[in-house]
Amino acid sequence: MDDLLADFLTETQEGLGALDAALVRLERAPDDIATLSEVFRIVHTIKGTCGFLGLTRMEGVAHAAENVLGRYRDGTLRVTQSGISVILGAIDCIRAIVAGLEGTGAEPAGNDSALIASLDAVASGEAVPVPAVSVAAKPVAEASPPVSAAPPVIVAPPPTPAASAAPSQPSAEPEAGGPNAPPQTIRVTVDVLEGLMMLVSELVLTRNQLLQLSRNGADSAFAVPLQRLSHITSDLQEGVMKTRMQPIGNAWAKLPRLVRDLGVELGKKIELDMRGAETELDRQVLELIKDPLTHMVRNSADHGIETPEQRIAAGKPEAGRIMLNASHEGGHIIIEIADDGRGLNAERIRQKVLAQGLATEAELAAMPEREIQRFIFRPGFSTAAAVTAVSGRGVGMDVVKTNMERIGGTIEVRSKDGRGTAFVVKIPLTLAIVSALIVEAGGERFAIPQIGVVELVRVGGEGAPQLERIKNSAVLRLRDRLLPLVNLSSLLHLESPAKEESAFVVVTQVGPHVFGIIVDRVFDTEEIVVKPVAPILRHVTMFSGNTILGDGSVIMILDPNGIARATGVGAESGEGEAERDGKRQAVAHRSDQRTALLLFRAGDSTPKAVPLGLIARLEDVERERIENAGGRPLVQYRGKLMPLVPLGGHWEQSMAPERQPVLVFSDGDRAMGLMVDEILDVVEEHMMIDGAGERPGFLGTTVIGGKVTEMLDTAWWLRQAGEDWFGQDAQQEAGNGCRILLVEDSAFFRNLVIPAIGAAGYSVTAVADAEEALRLREAGAVFDAIISDIAMPGMDGFALARALREGGAWRDLPLIALTGRADQADIERGRAVGFTDYVTKFDRAALLESLRQCLSAPVVG
Question: Whole-model pTM?
Fold first, then answer.
């Protein structure tokens, strides 16, 4: 194959990749002149170059397609779905011819007369039926070809298709270095880049060894040259890494066309939302994940998304939505493929598991739902009722899982019946050089990727933060926040555990959760070459790889995400896509999730509990610091007087312990301390509250750890402090599982309202702003009523009410204002924009009564 043909094939492949997405955009927006011009220009360039190279078959197809696009461009023909389908068929034909050219160097034989006749018919304005769309792409089991066998890649950025002039029309060569000079490019094989990357990795290791020797020798004459060598090595490493990295959007280029064709064949309306397309990853990894991603998107369109009629009947938008999101997190690449469809049918999966003998009924009964959902990754497992051209053969998801594990990745599934399914793929860095913090625990050294380290804290010294214990769990009070801690030595069962009284805490963050890792020593940051974990250690999720240090020793690289999973720190129940929008800090909270609770004892032997999220601090106040004013205990706290409320009843200083345990609640500049007898533990439990026999100050009872426990009504105790927490001076009605959306920007009040009305039988979802609420509406979430604060940053409650009443799925829902602004003008304004009722913070009885009335009578819009 000569160089001219090779260049043509490379440029044509680039043009064909852009055409699929551009034609799908043109179908959705027929009046988009820019997109139409782009499509016409690419096809025209392909046709012109074919004539120059004597590729008559490809030229005939491209010429017929160009005629149709020309009629679209001059306005004599209107863009239609059938016309776009015929043009896409022509693009597929050209793609097949290009594949033949790449294999043999000559055009493959074939008869395109029927396709050209269809194109000519469209160009003449004849009605052409929508052709059958073939979406049964090659099975995922056909693994991608080895990267070494892939066609050459372009090292420098390639020119756009628009700038790719036909070779038959050479242009005047611009002056070297002129402002209009095109970028100079050179093509090299992937094998060359692989070898170069390995050499750079070895060079980095050698550099680290030399630097280690230089540190050990005083006044070394090699110090300055080694420093220069280090800078050059870093620059070389960065340059070589850039040649290997490609945006993940390159792997997504064909998905808009795929989803469009699936929608046409299946009679569904599907929207594809791709985020993070600029996220870069190694080209080798990119090639290996293309097929798995394609298969999961096809599964979402076929199995997940319902037909328009089914979605309307379920109260969802007519068009389904598939979301792809890629991001870097903790030194890994996280790819999420989510849909808002019907979700996995857990009961059907159970029946299939029993039918195939994969588990017994007793084993299934003991499994959590998420574990049952993972059976879809078993070979030959499928719940499809029939085999179609798209899916249903029982192959695919097991191959997806195998392909991910081949590169050291993992895949998880989360699904909610009726709300959708999300697959989360986590790909470790299999060939990368990263900056890491070297630490020691239990006599062993470990590396923590710098990207996962928030800060480093020394504990135990004078004036330094101190480690505390709640029962057997270590916590760190860091800037008025209780931070859960993990002792690395104990976690890894090392012989000499870390000495917590004089240790270091590496503060790290996983998603929205921050926790600390206790280590013995901290050495230095060092650039390390990441090697994949050996298969024998792959089940140990705390490690993401290993590396060689400058002194030649091999150490393991810690994975904060794996540590969080292994210890349960920050464990979350599965949520839908709307709750996992990585671009936002506002995370939706649900009343049926497991909630972190603080257990304590006060007054009697019955344990008591309060949501940990409500507590700002835990204090041990010396008895002498507690003063008495007007018969009420107070303490000077952070420059102010903080009222104390004895939960066990009457408090006498003479009978008090030397150090009084106090739960501090604060919101803004207000604070109140609740005096208890003993702090017991922190647990995560579902708050299944029985309100029968409720007494003042308690929402009801629940069972925690096999013991009956009273759940605190925090709002009631806040009022006992005499502080105007709610703007106004809380009976319980059965909610019968009605779904309530709470829109409240204050995390403190969200944590107050969720258990308060959740105890009345309502299922509560809370978000932090109006924009997040509207996103839930667009995602098809279903609720029975909405409670919203009025004063919020950004879009306030009045604007939210107007937006909801203008139209959409939530137009007629009861809308209750929950606010401290209770003057008549605000009430009249609220009713004018569409609020059903107005309740002041925090009158629990009034709120429950308002919910009961709103949900028992139809709303008049």
Answer: 0.45
